[in-house]
């Protein structure tokens, strides 16, 4: 890109002020990936970076119209654009109504060659002829029909996934920026030898950290958690990753410390919890946000590699919800040299429509593990014994029929009643904390299970907060979280039933003593 670590190359149109960027900022500035994420601690200069990026595109590629957006209109006007315009003045010396206009028709001395607007509301016009559309994502439909060459989104952690992916990314198709054979940006469609240069329509997501499922999933952050965690707490290091069409940078506030008040970072740390500091200063995208149902779950302790042992039986737990998928989670129980039990989840099956049927689910497990099954036990939701409209068999009759060659007289371990949600929550959190001689480990490939443990919230009654969402394509409503963790609850409380019973009895005794004393 035309921006380097020590400043911005001089433009033939505007005088530029020399500026120093932090190394994380520089990495984003020089990226030629189409989708870029800058996830940084508070005060890391995210909006300042947006000002530098937008100013560069305006000067070097005036025919490449851009977009600057934030989650709400108030955020856009009072924060995002306010700061960007400060940067424009510092870097380029631009002044409103002289070098650019906002929401009104520009003067005649502006280059208007590519303007064909009846109304300039929501448009920033520049003397060079460049255009920046501005808007909020809480009314994303207002941007239908527009075409952008580049886009910058500020604080996207508060935005909806569909507004970013369905609205903004699909608007990124206006030509004007290209990448040549040397990896440099150019306005020329063809190279010196007549070869095509690659079209470049970049999206920059500049946001402070938050535990946002769709962002973490989109940028594959889950699979890089150990590396992220090892880097971001070192003041001189930061996480970078380029894959497919994406560039990811995660960095702490320390990288921009020289541009902040002397005691800024310490003040933030001293007035927040340890978890709060991890999020606000160190930009940890997995930090606990509060109210998690599995409050004792720790990705560092409970997620890793779980190898399948062909000499041990498989324990399978079912959850028969079919939307958004039908679920089976697979486990093995191992005796460790320490005397503890390793309860390891080595796989998950989450089949969506049209495969979301119990029979199909069982055959998928057989397809993958059938020749290596040395014994099988199955658990799950007691309601799976109820008949339904799918036929004469209930779910566990189907399970028994399909798996019959692997079963013995003790294979069926489905309880006849749900364990209490609150009791099993406390019991499992105790186990996660290490209260019992049990080590819980989930293979990092079990993405939906890990997400459940991380994102599922507790409702006001202490139960699972299973919020419903609507699929905008087919109108169906479903609960995005709770299915894989339900299957975990069923099997964990059954495998360790003596411990669970003892836990439940101890609660009753404590409650009885409390009643007696009050």
Set out the fold topology.
Layout: E1 3-4, E2 7-8, H1 23-29, E3 35-40, H2 46-60, E4 66-70, H3 73-92, E5 100-102, E6 123-126, E7 131-136, E8 150-154, H4 161-171, E9 178-179, E10 185-186, E11 198-199, E12 203-207, H5 213-218, H6 225-232, E13 239-243, E14 246-251, H7 264-270, H8 274-280, H9 299-302, E15 303-304, E16 314-319, E17 326-335, E18 341-351, H10 358-369, E19 376-380, H11 395-402, H12 421-433, E20 438-443, H13 447-455, E21 457-458, E22 464-465, E23 469-470, E24 477-478, H14 483-495, H15 497-517
Parallel strand pairs: 3-12, 3-14, 4-7, 4-8, 8-12, 15-20, 16-19, 18-20
Antiparallel strand pairs: 1-2, 5-6, 6-7, 9-10, 9-11, 13-14, 16-17, 17-18, 21-22, 23-24
Helix pairs in contact: 2-3, 10-11, 14-15
Give the % helix.
25-40%
What Rg, in angstroms, do the CA atoms define? Answer: 28 Å
CATH architecture of the largest domain: 3-Layer(aba) Sandwich
The CATH superfamily of the largest domain turns out to be P-loop containing nucleotide triphosphate hydrolases
Structural class: alpha/beta
Identify low-pLDDT runs.
1-18, 508-516
Strand percentage lies at 15-25%
Characterize the largest beta sheet: strand count, sense, and whether it forms a barrel: 9 strands, mixed
Summed up, the domain count is: 2
CATH topology of the largest domain: Rossmann fold
Average predicted confidence as pLDDT: 88
- How many individual helices? 15
Q: Looking at the chains present, what oligomeric state does this protein adopt?
A: single chain
CATH class of the largest domain: Alpha Beta
Across the major sheet, the strand order is 5-6-7-4-8-12-3-14-13
Instruction: Give the distance, in angstroms, between the N- and C-terminal Cα atoms.
Output: 71 Å
- Count the strands? 24
Can you tell me the overall shape? elongated
């Amino acid at each position: 890109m035309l921006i380097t670590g020590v400043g911005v190359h001089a433009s033939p149109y505007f005088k530029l002020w020399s500026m120093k960027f932090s190394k994380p900022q520089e990495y984003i500035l020089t990226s030629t990936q189409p989708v870029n994420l800058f996830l940084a601690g508070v005060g890391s200069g995210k909006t300042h970076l947006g000002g530098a990026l937008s100013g560069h595109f305006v000067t070097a590629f005036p025919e490449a119209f851009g977009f600057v957006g934030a989650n709400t209109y108030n955020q856009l006007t009072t924060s995002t654009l306010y700061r960007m315009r400060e940067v424009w003045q510092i870097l380029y010396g631009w002044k409103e109504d002289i070098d650019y206009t906002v929401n009104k028709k520009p003067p005649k001395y502006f280059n208007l060659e590519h303007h064909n607007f009846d109304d300039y509301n929501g448009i920033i016009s520049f003397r060079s002829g460049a255009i920046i559309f501005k808007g909020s994502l809480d009314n994303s439909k207002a941007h239908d029909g527009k075409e952008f060459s580049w886009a910058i989104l500020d604080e996207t952690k508060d935005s909806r996934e569909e507004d970013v992916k369905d609205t903004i990314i699909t608007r990124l198709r206006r030509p004007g920026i290209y990448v040549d054979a040397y990896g440099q940006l150019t306005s020329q469609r063809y190279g010196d030898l007549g070869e095509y240069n690659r079209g470049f329509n970049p999206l920059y997501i500049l946001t402070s950290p938050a535990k946002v499922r769709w962002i973490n999933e989109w940028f594959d952050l889950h699979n890089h958690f150990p590396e992220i965690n090892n880097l971001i707490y070192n003041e001189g290091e930061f996480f970078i990753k380029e894959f497919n069409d994406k560039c990811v940078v995660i960095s702490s506030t320390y990288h921009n410390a020289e541009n902040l008040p002397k005691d800024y970072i310490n003040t933030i740390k001293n007035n927040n919890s340890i978890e709060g500091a991890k999020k606000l200063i160190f930009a940890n995208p997995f930090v606990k946000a509060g109210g998690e149902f599995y409050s004792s779950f720790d990705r560092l302790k409970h997620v890793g590699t779980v190898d399948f042992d062909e000499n041990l039986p498989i324990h399978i737990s079912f959850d028969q919800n079919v939307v958004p998928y039908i679920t089976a989670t697979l486990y093995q129980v191992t005796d460790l040299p320490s005397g503890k039990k390793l309860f390891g989840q080595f796989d998950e099956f989450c089949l969506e429509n049209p495969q979301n049927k119990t029979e199909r689910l069982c055959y998928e497990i057989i397809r993958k593990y059938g020749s290596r099954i040395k014994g099988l036990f199955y658990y799950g939701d007691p309601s799976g014994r109820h008949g339904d409209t799918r036929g004469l068999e209930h779910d566990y009759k189907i399970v028994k029929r399909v798996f019959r060659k692997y079963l013995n007289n003790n294979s069926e371990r489905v309880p006849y009643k749900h364990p209490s949600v609150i009791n099993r929550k406390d019991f499992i959190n105790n186990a996660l904390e290490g209260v019992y001689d049990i080590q819980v480990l989930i293979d990092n490939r079990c993405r939906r299970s890990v997400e459940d443990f991380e994102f599922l919230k507790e409702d006001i009654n202490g139960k699972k907060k299973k919020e419903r969402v609507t699929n905008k394509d087919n109108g169906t409503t479903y609960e995005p979280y709770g299915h894989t963790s339900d299957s975990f609850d069923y099997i964990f409380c059954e495998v360790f039933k003596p411990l669970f019973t003892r836990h439940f009895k101890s609660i009753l005794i404590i409650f009885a003593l409390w009643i007696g004393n009050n």
